[in-house]
Amino acid sequence: MSFPFYKQFDLMDCGPTCLRMIARHYGRNFKVQTLRQYCEINREGVSLLGIYNAAKKIGFDTDAVKTSIKGLEECELPVILHWRQNHFVVLYKIKNNKFYIADPGTGHIKLNLEDFSRNWVENEDSDEGLALLLSPTPQFYENANEAGSEVRWSFLFKYFMVYRKLVIQLLFGLAAGSLLQLIAPFLTQSIVDIGINTRNLNFIYIILIAQGALIIGRISVDFIRSWILLHISIRINISILTDFIIKLMKLPMVFFDTKMTGDIMQRMNDQKKIETFLTGTALTTLFSIFNLLIFSIVIAYYNSTIFFVFLISSMLYMGWIVLFLKRRKELNYKSFEISAKNQSNVVQLIAGMQEIKLNNCEQQKRWEWEDIQASLFNINVKNLTLSQYQQGGSTLINEGKNLLIAFLSAKAVIDGDMTLGAMVAVQYIIGQLNGPIEQMLGFIQGFQDARISLERLNEIYQMEDEELPGKEWNQDLPVHKDIHINQLSFRYPGTGNLPVLKDINLHIPQGKTTAIVGMSGSGKTTILKLLLRFYKPDEGEIKIGTASLNNISYKTWRNECGVVMQDGFIFSDSIEHNIAVGESPANQEKLKHAIKIANIQDFIDGLPLGLNTKIGAEGNGISQGQLQRMLIARAVYKDPEYIFFDEATNSLDANNESVIMNNLKEFFTGRTVIIVAHRLSTVKDADNIIVLDKGSIIEQGTHQELTQLKGAYYLLVKNQLELGT
């Protein structure tokens, strides 16, 4: 029994996926999402400690060790290895100095001692590497297999059911095309056996006309089938992608914090792979299998010996191709490794040219590059040799089969067991059958790719929405809108991370301005993100009046929040649409008001198209200060009950900041405002100033009270103003 393999869904998923493979090896299925949570994966990936803790949680007795290759041979396999200092793989077998690896990024590979050592050993001066030993305990077998951890194709059927009539027409088209092809060899036989033997030219004319009609019919069927296929594939593609984006927009904010943009884009490309497989590869292969069966029956009808020769040789052909797949995978793995090293080396050469020349190390760096080129050449030689063996053997089998069938056909004609026309028909059929055999191999690879893509999509659909559909959410805010934070503690995902906030108790009164200050990393922005429900607190509670924030609808709450974050985003759209986000057409009075408060009228007037000027990635570039003013205008346009500013003016010059802060004073009246800032000018007029240090509140009061106290706040701002001694 081969070791189970799962491909990692995302760039940072190697650790949880390795654990998933080992759990499956011992008979338990776990969703990768469950293992991600146990590993406390974050945007930087997962640590060995995270995998260790996750393994403990699902019932493994585990130990992280630093050992040599000899020590590794004495360990109970499988084990998880720290690979190339930035990856995790599973070592599941050592035999005859060969190391069998399940790499979640690549697949099953077999390495010799030298290659294994180069990838696993920490450095050249040591012969040791890191390994995580795992052994199942009784608790592991008490865990139930998780439903939904395997691939489900069922949710795709609903998309096809909408177009079931077109799918039926398509299948009829495939069958019609196969039948038209089936008639062709019999017509060819009749030309030889009847037309030529009887020297009946008129009969040959009739048969040729019939063949021409069949060709036109087959082309027409192919045209119609292509149009139907295009119609189905595009609509299914759009439907799957639309549903995926809808689902994506329902997921919690924390999902996007732990996912790389490339991983999310990959999932969007996955649906294209599935659609291509289902409407392209699968249907073409279905058509080919149908042809294979029909033409095989026809060959058996003509001559059973030829049929068995074709069958055995086709199996040999497929076996020969499959025989080289494992070796090809190993070479691809090495080629990828060396190519990645080559790319990094070239980038380093170009980017570091100044340092190379200053330190006179041109020769050393060139030799390093040449060593890599030599390794690439050796890999290319091995790839070429393998391709020649594979291609030579397959060509020999295929052509040998054709020659043997030609001989058997000719012998059958001489022996009187087959007519000359039948021999020509058999040669035609053999030519038609070579294609389906090759397509079967492509179908297997396409199925594997589509299966992995489907599993990635299934994982997204199995995640819980931000607003659970079964829960009753408060659609209105309470009358009293004070914010109460009680005993709140929070730690960012990631094993070993220390708490960012500890036992925070805070009252933010309605209609007042509260400022939060502190050194970088003290937890200021984290409080804002918890209030905006990016994350859920580990402990404690946030209340709006008497209502728990957890029970208020996300849309209701965010509808009342105007936000300017440090990393605010500008869309590739007009200035008007960037300010009045989600509202079209914009309310012109509100728009003018927002522009005035954010002090960007002069900037807009200086543009040829004014408010219709396109900005963002595909439009006019704007400075960081202009971007912040645009975000402030967006928050003001929303006319919210609550205002959250996170360093909203840190990129503004002193004049702009002074004007905007004066404009905002009137706008803030009657609203609950929370400002996170370093600049004293932004926070000095706040009704209450909260001073954070290492996740705890150490001071609070007005600017006057805190400066007189001469504590932490005084030290923070003393360099910004002359506060006296």
- Name the poorly predicted regions: none
Order of adjacent strands in the largest pleated sheet: 1-6-2-3-4-5
Helical amount: 55-70%
The description of the largest β-sheet is: 6 strands, antiparallel
CATH architecture of the largest domain: Up-down Bundle
Shape: globular
Description of the molecule:
This protein is α+β, with helices and mostly antiparallel strands. The protein folds into three domains: 13-142, Cysteine proteinases (Cathepsin B, Chain A, Alpha-Beta Complex); 153-462, ABC transporter type 1, transmembrane domain (ABC transporter transmembrane region fold, Up-down Bundle), CATH 1.20.1560.10; 483-723, Rossmann fold (3-Layer(aba) Sandwich), CATH 3.40.50. The protein is built from 26 helices and 18 strands. It has a six-stranded antiparallel sheet, sandwiched between helices. A six-stranded mixed sheet has the order 12-15-16-9-17-18, sandwiched between helices. Strands 8-7-10-11 form a four-stranded antiparallel sheet, with helices on one face. α2 packs across α3, α11 (261-302) packs antiparallel against α16 (420-461) and α13 (325-351) packs antiparallel against α15 (362-414). The radius of gyration is 35 Å and the shape is globular. The mean pLDDT is 82. It is found in: Cell membrane. This is ATP-binding cassette subfamily B protein.
